[in-house]
Input
Amino acid sequence: MSTIFDKILDGEIPCHKLYEDEQVLAFLDIGPLSTGHALVIPKERKAYLHELSDASAAAIGRVLPRLARAILEVTGAQAYNVLQNNGAAAHQEVLHVHFHIIPREEERGLGIVWKSGSLPNGEELAARIRKALEA
Output
């Protein structure tokens, strides 16, 4: 199924491009939470972060800090959020990996309610995750 980001990558829908290289495209969000709200997407067409190749993930990792610096410089914002959602239950609306860079300006930006829990059996969970990383 084609997403809006596929259509942007294919040139069917225009965007306010901020950055582009062989692996990454960044552009302004057309429904911004604040001035400078940007989207960073891989050109690799995957729905979820865990599906990305290491090369695409690394390319995004190289671009995010550069874009954040430029957005802060231009907007004058002192703080920002980087947001990435995976799956409908996590509020992902477009099934193409994407990162939001959302500057915080006074009352505008990303609002978060953080409901902390506890960490029972933390070492057991950490050991299981380390084992999965080795596989």
Remarks:
- Strands lie at 17-20, 24-28, 38-42, 79-83, 99-104.
